[in-house]
Specification:
With 323 residues, the chain is mainly α. The chain contains 14 helices and no strands. α5 packs antiparallel against α13, α7 packs antiparallel against α13 and α10 crosses α12.
Length: 323
């Protein structure tokens, strides 16, 4: 809570200096905090039912909410498909966590089939990223059952996140080899790369305080050229760097590092900790490559899953794995 409070305070400071609009950042912080509190409480009371209900709610949101559907209006080049993929990854992770918490073999099997169905629903929704993210979370969850120590798994998730962040910054800075850089730019679309480059230039010019929350769209030359501009660079760390400077990036990284640390120390079983970590890492990767964290449903879902995975059930406790 202290870390989230610092994130909110820093957004207010940078907004005051540059006449920015911190409402989006404040809403994201509030959603994460509320989701985490609700997850800790519901996870303690209903360690199986709460994440199961959450997984169904996430799937329902991905299917029914128009602004999250990767249809023709949003599919290319920068649309909302990242939010749909993030919700499917979170829903898959919640179903897998519920499966590991279940005592009955039949219920555990049913919840894993639910997780597989959620992952496959990404293909039906036209979200290849959601299908891939859900499948990755499911496979990581199954593999976590054979791990005796969670430390290497948590470290691996942190390393994977750092690698995606490094690639994002390398693409924005144009420092990759020509062949690899061209291939990645083709997959990411030139429009997205231009936004990243604008964000990096703004960050270099305003290292300490950034340009102010919500002001990237006003200062980026690439934004007016888009057919449907939303004023965002579609990369969470680059947006933080451009709008809130290096301290903003460090606070974002610290928040994710704290989540991994909390999963390492959680009293829940190792499979639950690693499953939640895999789902949250998938969301982090999607946020580095898109605008997934711009949606309240995603930020609240992140808090909920973290809360479920770090709660202390009042019923018979899980058998915790060795950190």
């Amino acid at each position: 809570m202290i870390l989230l409070g610092i994130c909110a305070a820093w957004s207010l400071i940078t907004a005051a200096v540059h006449d920015g609009r911190p409402e989006g950042m404040l809403l994201a912080v509030l959603a994460v905090a509320a989701g985490y509190a609700a997850g800790r409480i519901s996870g303690a009371l209903l360690p199986v039912a709460a994440p199961c209900a959450g997984s169904l709610a996430g799937l329902a949101l991905a299917v029914t909410v128009p602004d999250l559907s990767p249809g023709p209006r949003f599919a290319a080049p920068l649309g909302h498909a990242g939010a749909t993929a993030a919700l499917l990854a979170l829903a898959t992770g919640a179903a897998c966590c519920a499966a590991w918490a279940a005592r009955s073999p039949a219920l555990r099997l049913g919840l894993r089939l639910l997780a597989a169905g959620i992952a496959l629903s990404g293909a039906a929704l036209g979200s290849a990223g959601g299908c891939a993210a859900g499948a990755a979370v499911l496979l990581c969850s199954l593999a976590a059952g054979s791990m005796r120590h969670r430390g290497p798994g948590i470290a691996g998730l942190g390393l994977a996140s750092a690698l995606v962040a490094a690639v994002t910054w390398a693409v924005a800075g144009g420092i990759l080899p020509e062949g690899l850089g061209s291939a990645l730019e083709g997959r990411l679309t030139p429009q997205r790369v231009q936004l990243w480059q604008d964000a990096l230039r703004l960050a270099h010019r305003n290292t300490g305080l950034g340009v102010g929350p919500g002001r990237f769209g006003e200062l980026s030359p690439a934004v007016p050229q888009l057919l449907q501009p939303d004023g965002k660079p579609h990369s969470a760390p680059l947006q933080q760097a451009a709008e809130q400077g290096v301290p903003g990036v460090l606070l974002l990284a610290a928040a994710f590092a704290w989540i991994l640390y909390a999963l390492w120390r959680t009293p829940r079983s190792t499979p639950i900790a690693l499953t939640a970590g895999a789902a949250l890492t998938a969301v982090a990767a999607l946020a580095m490559l898109g605008d997934a964290l711009s949606f309240t449903a995603v930020t609240a879902g992140v808090g909920l899953l973290a809360g479920w995975a770090t709660s202390r059930p009042w019923t018979a406790p899980d058998t915790p794995g060795s950190p």
